[in-house]
Design goal:
This protein has about 300 residues and is of the alpha+beta class. It has one domain. The protein is about 20% helix and about 35% strand. The protein has 6 helices and 11 strands. The strands form 2 sheets. Strands 6-3-2-1-11-10-9-8-7 form a 9-stranded antiparallel sheet. The termini are far apart. It holds the Pfam family DUF1838.
């Protein structure tokens, strides 16, 4: 068949397009560099100082032996973060994540912000202390596991999707306890469980610098200090679901209003070289409690 000028032009254009649009490479998740790249895409961005924001919605329940679980409050949380490149003693590049986060306790029926809470076991009406942890930073990561070998990412491909789970048991000195926790109890004990998921091709493609995964979060812990449970048996579990947002401005209005009113620094992540110790719900409570009770004498012990 005779080729027309149009046909030759079309074939030439097709060939040019094929050369100009090579197939994107796939990140090697078995390499140290691949582990770093994938973790950065999930947690923040492969580009330094690009701020990203996670949001989550959930509920908090009580659990005590011999009684039904109680829905105590709804939850609305956010975390604003960024990653920066760092080097280890070998000169290898890794990254450090810095962040700060808020979690608001909401009325379980109306969904409105709770300023006070009636303890169903003591009948007392108590001030609510919302979570405002600044900073929540991670140790530098260089793509190695605890054994010194390249870390194995717990990522599974399920159809077109990827899934990754992480369980973080916490057991350490409680800043609200004394010096004898090993002997009389009171050690901080909790578990955080995270399940991330998203589109597999987006995660492993080297054509993008970040992904916006969904995340499920579960927390199991003792009572919150502001609940004034005074050592009563039982504890809490939180269940929430969220995602990384395209923009901080996509946060719910309630959260943005609270940040503007009470937490203006939470519009941005901490500086990449932030050296402050991490804040937790317990250390934050201690600060608030100590400020409110400054100058007051502590009650004396008995026999």
């Amino acid at each position: 068949m005779k080729k027309t000028g149009y046909t030759r032009f079309a074939l030439a254009l097709l060939g040019f397009m094929t050369l100009a649009a090579p197939v994107s490479a796939e990140i090697d998740m078995t390499s140290r560099e691949g582990v770093i790249a994938v973790n950065r895409k999930i947690q923040c961005s492969m580009i330094d100082n690009v701020e990203t924001t996670y949001v989550w919605h959930g509920q908090g329940f009580s659990r005590r032996t011999g009684e039904r679980d109680k829905l105590l409050f709804k939850l609305l949380g956010m975390n604003v973060r960024q990653c920066v490149t760092v080097k280890n003693d070998k000169g290898e590049e890794g990254y450090r994540l810095v962040s700060r986060e808020i979690m608001l306790y909401l009325d379980p029926k109306s969904g409105e912000l709770m300023d006070s809470w009636e303890n169903p076991w003591t009948g007392e009406t108590l001030d609510v202390i919302h979570v405002a942890n600044d900073p929540v930073n991670q140790r530098p990561s260089f793509g190695y596991g605890r054994d010194g070998k390249v870390a194995k990412l717990p990522i599974r491909k399920v159809g077109d999707y990827w899934q990754m789970n992480a369980e973080i048991p916490l057991f350490y000195h409680n800043v609200l306890g004394g010096d004898y926790q090993k002997y009389v109890g009171g050690t901080y004990h909790a578990t955080e469980i995270f399940d991330f998921y998203g589109m597999y091709d987006e995660l492993v493609s080297d054509d993008n610098t970040h992904v916006n995964p969904g995340v499920a979060w579960v927390r199991i812990s003792s009572w919150l200090p502001w609940m004034e449970m005074n050592g009563r048996e039982g504890g809490l579990y939180f269940n929430a679901q969220g995602a990384k947002l395209e923009s901080w401005n996509d946060l719910p209005k309630l959260m943005k209003d609270q940040i503007a009113k009470n937490y203006p620094e939470y519009t941005n992540a901490p500086a990449g070289d932030d050296k402050r110790p991490n804040e937790t719900s317990w250390t934050y409570f201690k600060k608030i409690f100590d400020e409110r009770n400054e100058g007051k004498s502590a009650p004396k012990g008995g026999h």
